[in-house]
Structure formats: C-alpha cells, structure tokens
Amino acid sequence: MSLDLDALCPRLAGAPLFAPLSLAIAPGTVASVMGPSGVGKSTLIDAIAGHLAPAFTLTGSVTLNGADILARPAESRRVGVVFQDAVLFPHLSVGDNLAFGLSRAVKGRAARRATVEAALEQAGLSGFAARDPASLSGGQRARAALMRSLLADPAALLLDEPFSRLDTALRDEIRAFTFARIRARAIPALMVSHDPADAAAARGPTIRLIPIGDIT
Amino acid sequence: MSARGEGWGLRAGVIVVLGVGVIGPIAAGLAQTARAAFGVMPAIGATEPGFAAFAALFAVPGLGSAVRLTLVTGLGATALSVIVALGALPALHGRLSRGRAARWLTPFLATPHAALAIGLAFVLAPSGWIARAVAPFAGFDRPPDIALVGDPWGIALILGLMVKEVPFLLLVGLAALTQIPLTRHLATARALGYPPAAAWLKVVAPQLWPMLRLPVMVVMAYALSTVDMALILGPSTPPVLAVLLARAFFAPDTAMLLPASAGALLQGALVAGALGALWLIERVLARLGRAWLRRGGRGHGIDGLFALGRFVALVLAAIGGLAILALLAWSFAWRWPWPAPLPESWSLRAWIGAGPGLARAAGQTLAIALSTTVLSLALAVAWLEGEDRARLGRAGWAEALVYLPLLVPQIAFLYGLNVLFLRLGLTGGVAAVIWAQALFVFPYVMIALSDPWRALDPALIRAAAALGAGPWRRLVAIKLPVLIAPLLTAAAIGLAVSVAQYLPTLFMGAGRIATLTTEAVTLASASDRRVTGVYATLQAGMPLAAFAAAFVIPAVLHRNRRALRGGGV
Amino acid sequence: MRLALAAALAASLAAAPGLADDWQAVLDAARGQTVYWNAWGGDARTNAFIDWVGRQAEARHGVTVQQVKLTDTAEAVTRVLSEKAVGQETGGSVDMIWINGPNFLAMKDQGLLHGPFVGNLPNARYLDLAPGSPNVVDFTVPVDGRESPWRLARFVFVADTARVDTPPAAMADFVPWAEAHPGRMTHPDPSNFMGATFLKQALIELAPDPEALQSPVTDASYEDATGPLWAWYDALRPNLWRGGTAFPENEAIQQRLLNDGEVDIAMSFDPASTAAAIRGGLLPETARVFVPEGGTIGNVSFVAIPYNAAHRAGALVVANLLIDPAVQAHMQNIDVLGAFSVLDPNRLDDAGRAAFADLPDDPALPSRAALGPTRLEPHASWMTQLTADWAARYTR
Fold first, then answer.
1. Whether the Cβ atoms of residue A196 and residue A162 lie closer than 8 Å to each other
2. Are strands C137-138 and C147-154 parallel, antiparallel or unpaired?
3. Does the beta carbon of B213 lie under 8 angstroms from any beta carbon of chain A?
4. Distance between CA atoms of C276 and C271, rounded to whole angstroms?
5. pLDDT, one tens digit for every residue, chain C (396 residues)
C-alpha cells in the first residue's frame, strides 16, 4: 500500500505551477507538502483526488498500490480527502453523514448502524448520531469528517490544511487523533499545510513546493 | 471520464430538445411571419412578394403614436423599475432576511399580470377605490372625468408594469447579492469614508449588474410587447403597438394579416433596438461610473435618492396590495355602486355561479401548469447537471438560447407558429399548450435555479466523490436534497408563469383549452367585475399556494438542519 | 334572393318523409359528439344559457356542447382560415360559431361555411324565411341558408333615470344633451361592433338618402351619406367622456362605467340586458332602456358551421335545438336571458304559444311596441369603411 507521485506537475495554459513533484509515501506515513500560499497546494490535492478544474492540464503520474489512478473519475480512485472546513453534508444528520461514507462492503442495516456507532464512539461522539451537523463544535466536526472519510475504506488519504481553522488548544488534540487513525489504518497520507508545526507532528517526509518563478 | 462523457451527452440531449422544441419553432414562426410581412401568404391568396404590407402598416392611423407610446411605456417602465429596485434593494437587504423579503415579494410575483391589471384598474379609476376614499372630502358627487386608467400618456400602464417588475428585479437582486461578499465589501467602503448609498453605487452595483442584466432585458422585452396588461391599463386610441397588432391579427378582414405580420416584425425590431440601446447605455454608464469612482468623491448627497427609491417601492407595494385586495373584495360583492368604499351587499353568488366552469378551468390550469413545470424543471436539472458532469462553465451562447423565447416578442412568432402547428396537425390539444407554455416557463425555471445550483458549495460534491459516491448518487443524495428549497421555488415560479400565459394558450389551444387566465382576460372585457374577481382571485391564488408550499415544505423537511434554514429561495 | 327562396321552400318540405329519414341519420351521427361552439364569452347570462342548451342537447340527443369563449368572434374566423391555409379540410377545431355581419361576410366570401343547411332543420318550420325577413339577410348580405338564426338583437340606449330626466329623442339631440352634460356619455370604440353600430344608427338618421345605405358603398355615395354624420360627430365629440379622446373597449365596459357613475348613458344590442343587469346587481334599479323615436337598427344573431367542422352532425342538431319553441321561450324568459325569440308567432302551435304566454314581466324590460320600428343594417361594406374613416379622423 503506497502512494507514488512521479514528476507530477499541474499546468495552467501550459505553464507549470511548481517544479515537477516526485514523492513516494509508504503506508501509515503522513507526508507533508509545504509552500507559500498561492503556490498551488490545493491544486495538487485536486489533481490527486480527481477534482482538477478543466482549465488545468496535468503531466506526470500518480500510482496507488502500483495502479495509475489519473484516468479514473474521483469516486473510483479510493482517495479520501479531509478538507480545511471539515465539510459535512448539511441536510444529513451526523450519523447519516457517516453512513453516506461507509463502504458498501458493510452489509445489513444493523451492521451498518453498529459500524457508524462504533466510529462515532472512537471519535468521542457517542450519542451524536441524530444531531444536526450545524450544531457541532469545530473539533467535533473535524473528527466526524475524518471518521467519515475512513469509513469509506480509502486506499490513501489527502489532508487539505486540515487544522488551520482550529484554535491552538484544539489543534494539537485533533492532529494527534488524525495521525493516530491514519497509522492505525496503515494507509499512505499526504497533507498540505503552511504550518511547520503540522509537518513536525506528522513525522513523515516533508517537501517544499517551489514556485516556478524561483527555479528559472 | 465516463461522467464527463455522460455530461456531454446530457448537454447534447438538452441542446437537441432546445433546438427542436424551442429554437426551431421560434425561427420557423418568425419565418412565417416574415413571409407574410413581405406579402406572401397563399392561404389568403397573397403570392406577390413586395413591400405592400409595410406600406399598409404605415398607413394605419395612429401607428406613429402607437410606436411612440410603446417606447415611452416600455422603456419608461423598465428604467423606473431598475432605478426603484436598485434604490430599494439595500433597505430590503438590510432589514429583512432573504427568506422574509422573498415572502413579502411573493404575492406580487405570483399574481399574473392580467389579474393585477384588473385589480389595479379598479384601484386607480376615477370611480375606483382611491377616488371613492377621497370623494367625501373632495366633494365629488360623481366620479371626476379625468383619465386615470387608459390615460393617453400610458402612466397607468407604466405603473402597472412597475408593480409587477420591481418585485421581480428585487427578488433577482436579492439572489444575486448572496454571490457577493457584501458585508465585507460594504464595511471596507464605509471604513474608507463612503456613506451607504455611495458605497452601494460604487462597490455593489457594478458587481450586481452582470447578474441583473439578463432579467432587465427580459423585463424590457416584456414591457415593450405586453398585450394583456396594455389592453386593461393602456390607452385605446391608439393603443400600444402590440395591442394594435393583436387587434389586426384577429380582425375579421383577413387582408389585415399581412400588415399585422409586418407590424410583428416592427415589434421585433423595436425590442432588438431597445436591447441594443441597453448595451450602449451600459457601456456609457460604465465609463462615466469609472471616472466618478476615480475622482474619489464620497457622494454624500445621494442617500436621499435611495430614500426616494424606498418610498416609491413602498407606494408600489401599497397600490399592488390594494389591487389584489380589490379582486378579493369584488369576488364576494353583490351591489357595489359609486361612491361606496365597500360593497353594499356581500354574496357568494359569483363563486357559486361560476361553479362548474370555474372548476373545469381551474383543473385544466393546474394540470397544464404541473406538466409544464415538471417538464421544465427536469430539463433545467439535466442542463445544469450536464454542465457539472462535463465540467463545463456557463456557456453564454447556450444561455442566450434558453432566454430567446423571453426576448423575442410573442406576437412576432406565435401566429407563424400556429400555422406551423396546424400543418403538423398538432394544434388544439393540451400537449401543444403544454409545449408552448414550456417555451416561456423553462427560461424562468433556469433563471431561478441556475444561480443557487452553481452557488452550491463544490466542497460538498468533492467530499461526496472522495467518499466514493458516483455522479448519480451525488445528484440524488446530495445536490437535490440540499437544493430542495431553490428547486421548489423554481417550481413555484414555473407554475406562476404557466398559469399567467395568455397568448400561447389562446393560439396553441385553438381556444378550446380554457384556463383561468384565458377566462379572466375574456371576462375583463365583460361588465361583471365580481366574476372577473373570482377568476382573477383563483388565478393569483394558485401560484400563491405553490409559493407557500415552496416555503413550507423545505422548512418542515429541514426543521432540524440549521445550515439549510435561513433563506427560502 | 333566389337561394333564400329555395331555403324557404326547403323549410316547407321539412315534414316530407325523405327529409325526416335524413334528419334521423343526422341525429344518429351526432350522438356522442362534442360540439365546440365558438361564441363571444363576455356575457355571463349568455354563457349560462349556452350551458343550459348544452345540457338539453345532452339529455335529448346525446350531444355534448362545449362553449369556446371568444373575446372577439373574429378569433374563430382566423382559426378556420389558418386551418384552410394548411389544407385541413376535415376535422377542423371549430364546429359552430355565433356570428353575424362582417365576420359572416368574410367567411362566406372565403368559402369557409357549410351549407345551405337551414332549410333542412326540422324546426325551421317555425321561422319566417320569406324574402325580406330579417332571418334571411345579414347586414344586407343574403344568408343563403349558411347560418341559422337564434336570437333577435335591437340597438337600444340605457340611461340611469335617476340622473337623466329627458333622454335624447333622436340621434341629432345627443349634441345639445352632451353640451349640457359634458363628459357624461360615451360610446364603445368603433373598432368594436357596438361602437360601429352607434355610428351607423346616426348615419341612418342623418344620411340624406338612407336607401343608398342598402347597396355596397362607393366613394361617391360615401361622401354624400357621411357628410352630415361627421359634422354631427365633430360637434358631439368634445363633450364626450374624456373629451372624446378615449373610448371603452365594448358595451360591457361601457355598462360598467354607467354602473360606476362615470357616465349616464350606455348602449346595448339586447333590449333585455338592462332588466337582466339590474337583477344581477350590475346596474342601479333606476336604469331604463330608451330608443330614438324613428326606431333603431335591429338584426338577428346567427350560428354558422365551418366547412371543415369535425362534428357537423352535432352542430346541426344544436342549431336545430336552438330554434325549438320551448328553448326559444326559455331564452326569452327574463329570468334566464330575456333575448327576443326569432320564431314567427304565427307559425307556432298551441304548446309553443303557451310557453311564450307564460313568461314573467319586468319593469325594466321594454315591450316590443315601445322599441318602435326596426331599421335595417346598412350593407356590411359601410361599416368597414365607416370604422376605418373614424380611425383615420380621430386617432392621433
């Protein structure tokens, strides 16, 4: 189980955003990609997850467990994403948000329900199944969004500035929770961030994206 | 890639439906009209091409006045509506939540033009409500002989159009405002020393205009070519061009069909010219505006203008509200002579007497409106979803095609279309009416739905895709439920537009399809305001009920979902 | 006139066995049909009567009647014409039209009408179809059996007697009356039938040679006949409602103006409409009908069947039903419609006569005697030119 980027480079009108990026991420490892804002960190996430806007083109390759995933639509890549804002579907209860993510491999109403309950418990959200996601605190949202991503049984996880909206006290707690879950699942993860503390806590390889103007 | 392919497929499907169902017929209808305008109409023995029809048209007494009147009322009503709407928008936005504002606007949006005009005529007439209210103080024993409705300058018509169009522009404006980081921009401008009105004009209005342009064009095209409202509120000797043409198309002397067709082309040219002028004015204003902006004046004097806009909007709301009340009051009246401010005797006879015919018309109206709305909504969702899946942006040309039916005057192509339909043997059925109405319903549904649809947080869709949800699951499980409120609002608007359709129903239904609107317009030329009141009340009530449902259903479904409450539209 | 004679002859033969068999065939064909009767829908009482006729047709002959309510009869003419334009020779959407005057002339000229059929209707035996009868000419145009009469129309004025002491006794008297009461009277727009009739009534009274009006108009005869009319109108117009610059769309709107007190005089083509409107709460109790002393224009309302009507047999059955004595008596009942019957009282049997004798009376309903003599409509071409000329003169 590994996520390999080989000379990956998104281009806008033919011009590369940053120097081609090559990176091999082993299972259970969280690689950090750092860089100033505007360098294209979010574009990198979009490229790997399959959400690249049509204006961009992409060179290089992304292989997950040896298979090239770039030709697949987003939903078939088995790449989970945790967004900055911990996006929860506003029309579904917290439990239904998790159930939406839960892999189809878990069959039967009772079994699915139990899996969701167990995930909530792990996230310290026991009894929150029927709650409106809008009523959750920032930390609770972040944990629920992460658990939802993991329930989909992803083969890799992308983290897009996952902690930047949290206040400092909460940030350490959620960070620890997130990395512990990733290691427990033994899947490769890639995090983009501008906070050096995130990279330090991830304890994985750290890459700085270099804006293209700086290399020529 | 398959989703992308599917997206193209959906888009292509919609384009085919539009091409065959909308563009083709309008073009064919226009072609028929143009043929007749240049003298070719074999049915009445006219086969010699030439300009005789135009010569006959220009020889029609009062044509010049009719054109002038059309321009004055159409352009005047549009310009005043835009100014008043822009002036009232800040106040509305500042004082009411978007949902509540929309609820206040709804009665005016839901009431069809014809019904509102009928009510308004009674409010404004020399023997009407306002005159009756002041009669005891002014000492009128008879209604004053002043032209207050059907005045030669078209003021009543302008007022009537404004009562309908200002709320429409306000609603569109409120929706557009959500796309602008309004609070931050206003706060920034205020902090730089600009008073509220100047901040609006210099910062918000330029961002707002691109989103208002199309609705303003639609308002303009409508105001220049309305028939039902001009019949009821406009002057009669001469009337506006569209009414003159409608009369000519239905004149017993069939030779009039040729000059009428020529006039229909003239009507089209007037609208095209006005739209061109709008484009030009936009350029000039943008240039002047930039110069004004760069001078950096803080514009302290213009707050008063905004207050005026608010005041006019309130006056319009008041007389519009009175018009709707007047319909209701008349439907329950028995004897109501001058100068009684309220009916002398009340009765349910108008409702009971209209019984079977009313029920038939109401049922017919509802069936057609529901079919038209469902059809249009499905098409709009297919269009927008196709855009998402093919990852296409807004295509300007495609949108122009969608709005084509609203920008081409109905009278310019409906007669030709009627001839075409007859040739295909399609006329006279409910299906033909549904189709013809959908021409005008679909664009409004698109207007109502496309902004909320495109404003949907893309992170929701990405999150769903990252969780392994394919395009169909994303549509059914995320987009449609999150967008239930705008979907239902679009449906309510579609229903309101369908209920209000007059000329398409009349032409395509071969007159056999009696809806509340065709009956109400017919009855408006009758003496019994009470029966008219019954039909017009129901005509307004049906869309109103749909709007109420559009507010209530999402509120109930999402009663425990805070993030989805707030705005009804 | 020759064709009219033939029609009359055919009517007298209606009882012959061959014809009866034919009629039975019509009845059989009509059963189960829905007749789309295109009729002006601006009068609620007429609509209600048409509805009643529909129920009768259903009960007696199994024919359903669906009224297509028109704002202007010309709509139906246009519709048939568009159908002809595309070669739809059968299965047309219009089965029957309430029609007369220019619309009839237009359809007849274009060959859009079925017939002659009137003579074949069994109930035609109650009609006076002799030459010169109002039933066989429509605006001086021979009917030729292509339209069947159903109600009698007479041009009358209506005044609120609470406000008008002595109504004008002749068309010429309207000028001094309006001068004394400026802004208190008007007439419908002459592009409307009633407005044109107001001008025609004046034309008949003021023209030096009224006989000329019975022939198609020529430039010379038009000049001679209308000179006094326009002089009269120029004197009248400044004192009309709104200074003669705006006119109500039709007589119904004008009646509403009378009810609202905006004007004191209205006009109608139905002498019973005033009594009916009072009962309906649409006019004050004091409204009364008046006519100029020399009598007024009268004509007959007809129904015609387009050549391509989908349900011709049904339409024939309904046209026949309309001139059934019981139906005509019901129509003349002021509680129902109050429109005068087109049947010849001398041709009725005892039952028919009894039905008419039992009808109720109303203070606002004028007797036939009070209406004076009926003046003939001018040839239809006069109306066309008169309204065009009016528009050219007074539309700015």
1. no
2. unpaired
3. no
4. 10
5. 333 333 333 443 433 445 667 899 999 999 999 999 999 887 778 998 999 999 999 999 999 999 998 877 888 888 898 888 888 888 899 999 999 888 898 899 889 999 899 999 999 999 999 887 888 988 888 999 999 999 988 999 999 999 998 999 999 999 999 999 999 999 999 988 899 999 999 999 999 998 899 889 999 999 999 999 999 999 999 999 999 988 888 888 899 999 989 999 999 988 888 998 898 888 999 999 999 998 999 888 999 999 999 999 999 999 999 999 999 999 999 888 888 889 988 899 998 899 888 888 888 988 877 888 888 888 888 988 999 899 889 987
Which domains are delineated in chain A? 3-90+139-215 (3.40.50.300)
Chains A and B touch (3+ CB pairs under 8 A): yes
- Report H helices in B178-240: 182-191, 196-199, 205-225, 228-233
**Nearest Cβ partner of B477 from A85, A100, A152?**
A100
Cβ within 8 Å, pair B468-A152: yes
Domains and CATH numbers, chain B: 1-50+354-569 (1.10.3720.10), 62-347 (1.10.3720.10)
Stated pTM of the model: 0.80
Helices (H), chain C: 2-12, 17-30, 44-61, 74-85, 102-109, 174-180, 193-206, 219-236, 251-260, 273-279, 312-322, 325-332, 350-357, 380-394
Q: Which two tokens stand for residue C101?
A: 């005057």
C262 touches chain B (CB under 8 A): yes
Q: What is the DSSP string of B414-428?
A: HHHHHHHHHHHT-TT
Structural domains of chain C, ranges and CATH numbers in brackets? 2-150+301-357 (3.40.190.10), 154-297+373-394 (3.40.190.10)
Contact A75 B564 (CB under 8 A): no
Q: Token pair for residue A15? A: 């011009």
Taking CB atoms and an 8 Å limit, are B464 and A89 in contact across chains?
Answer: yes
- pLDDT one-digit tens code per residue, B225-251: 998 899 889 988 788 999 999 888 777
DSSP letter for each residue of C297-330: EEEEEEEE-BTTBTTHHHHHHHHHHHT-HHHHHH
Per-residue pLDDT reduced to its tens digit, C216-253: 999 999 999 999 999 999 999 999 999 998 888 888 88
C68's enclosing H/E stretch is: strand C64-70
Among chain A residues, the shortest Cα distance to B393 is held by A54
**Is residue C328 within 8 Å of residue C300, measured between CB atoms?**
no
- Please give the helix or strand (H or E) that residue B310 lies within, else none: helix B303-331
8 A C-beta contact, residue A209 and residue A40:
yes
Cα separation, B331 vs A40, in Å, equals 66
